[in-house]
Amino acid sequence: MNLIIVKIGGNAISKLNSDFFEQLRQWRQAGKKVLLIHGGGPQISKLSAKLNIPTVKKNGIRVTDEETLSLTKMVLLGNTQPALLMRLAHEGLAAIGLNASDQQLLTGTYVDQAKYGAVGSITGVNELALSKILSGQIGVLAPLALTRDGEWLNVNADTAAADVARVLKASQLYLLTDVPGVLKNGKVISAMIPQDLPQLIEDKVITDGMQPKLSAAVEAVHAGVHAVCITDQLTHPGTTLKMEVTD
Ligand SMILES: Nc1ncnc2c1ncn2[C@@H]1O[C@H](COP(=O)(O)OP(=O)(O)O)[C@@H](O)[C@H]1O
Ligand SMILES: CC(=O)N[C@@H](CCC(=O)OP(=O)(O)O)C(=O)O
C-alpha cells in the first residue's frame, strides 16, 4: 500500500502547526494514503489524577485495569481524537475518525495480562477496509484493539503505529514527539540503523519513552517499512532509522 503513517503523541497534538497540515495536503495531492495514529497518554494521566485514580506504569506501559481502560477509551475517543479531527476539518482536509470497532479494523492480543492488565499488541488489520477508507480521506485511528472475543485492549500508540505500519507495509512511518529527534550529548542523531540501538541503551543515552519508541521503530524497518523518522515536526528531518545507512 502506498501509505504513510504518522503517529502523533498526546503532547504533540496541541503543537501541530500549519507546516504539518500543508505536508499532509501535499501527500494527499500526490496520491498517497495517509493514516494518523494518535496518542493521548498525558491526557489520560491528567484525567486519572483529577479522578484520584492512580497511574501505574511499568516499562513506560500503562497498567490498565477495568477502570483505567474505560477512562482510556473515554479520553482517546472522546477527547484527543475529536480534537485532531477538528483541526483537520479547520484546515480543509477530509478526514475520518476510526477505532478498532469500525469494520474490525484492529485485532489484538494481551501482552501479559497478569503484569499489565488490558494492554495489547496488534495481531491483525482489516487491510481491505482500511485501504478503501484511506483512498478517499485521511484516517485518524485510536491506539486501541479488540480481541477476537470482543474485549478492548489499550495499546501503546508507538507500538500500534509500528504494528500497523508493519502489517500494511507502509512506505514511511513518522513518530512525532516532543523532542527534535534521538538526542546524544544534546545533538540530534540524524541517521540510525537497528544495530546502533543496544549500545545506546547500554550507555543510557536512550531512556524512558524513547526506548519503546525505538524498539517499535526497529521492528517496523525489519518488517519492510523503508524509513522511520522520529521528529517533532514533519518538515524537520529529525532522526531517520533505516535498515542500512544510505547517505
Ligand atoms: N536519547 C534521547 N533523545 C530524546 N529523547 C529521549 C532520549 N532518551 C529519553 N528520551 C525521552 O523520551 C521522550 C519521548 O518519549 P515519550 O515521552 O514516550 O513521547 P510521546 O509521548 O511523544 O510518545 C522525550 O521527551 C525524552 O524525555
Ligand atoms: C498501553 C499504553 O501505555 N497505552 C498508552 C496509549 C496512549 C499513548 O501511547 O499515548 P502517547 O503516545 O501520547 O504516550 C497509554 O495508555 O498511555
Structure description:
This protein has 247 residues and is α/β, with parallel strands linked by helices. It has a single domain, classed as Carbamate kinase, CATH 3.40.1160.10. The strands form five sheets. An eight-stranded mixed beta sheet has the order 5-8-2-1-11-15-16-14, with helices on both faces. A two-stranded antiparallel ribbon has the order 3-4. Strand 15 and strand 16 form a beta hairpin. Helix 7 packs parallel to helix 9. The longest helix is centred in the N-terminal third of the chain and has 25 residues. It starts with a strand and ends in a 6-residue tail after the last strand. The mean pLDDT is 95. Adenosine-5'-diphosphate (ADP) binds next to helix 1 and helix 9. Adenosine-5'-diphosphate binds next to helix 1 and helix 9.
SSE layout and pairing:
Blueprint: E1 3-8, H1 10-13, H2 18-29, E2 33-38, H3 41-50, E3 57-58, E4 61-62, H4 66-90, E5 95-98, E6 106-110, H5 113-116, E7 120-125, H6 127-136, E8 138-141, E9 144-146, E10 152-154, H7 157-168, E11 172-176, E12 183-184, E13 187-188, E14 191-192, H8 197-202, H9 210-222, E15 227-231, E16 239-241
Parallel strand pairs: 1-2, 1-11, 2-8, 5-8, 11-15, 14-16
Antiparallel strand pairs: 3-4, 6-7, 9-10, 12-13, 15-16
Helix pairs in contact: 3-4, 7-9
The site of N-acetyl-L-glutamyl 5-phosphate (X2W) has 16 residues, from helix 3 and strand 4.
Beta content = 15-25%
What's the helical proportion of residues? 25-40%
The unreliable regions are none
Q: Which value, in Å, is the CA radius of gyration?
A: 17 Å
Largest sheet, strands/sense/barrel: 8 strands, mixed
Total strands: the figure is 16
Write the CATH architecture name. 3-Layer(aba) Sandwich
The helix/strand order is: EHHEHEEHEEHEHEEEHEEEEHHEE
Structural class: alpha/beta
Shape, please? globular
Q: Could you name the CATH class?
A: Alpha Beta
Bound molecules: adenosine-5'-diphosphate, N-acetyl-L-glutamyl 5-phosphate
Strand order of the largest sheet: 5-8-2-1-11-15-16-14
What is the average per-residue confidence, as pLDDT, rounded to a whole number?
Answer: 95
Report, as a whole number of angstroms, the end-to-end distance.
25 Å
CATH homologous superfamily? Acetylglutamate kinase-like
How many DSSP helices? 9
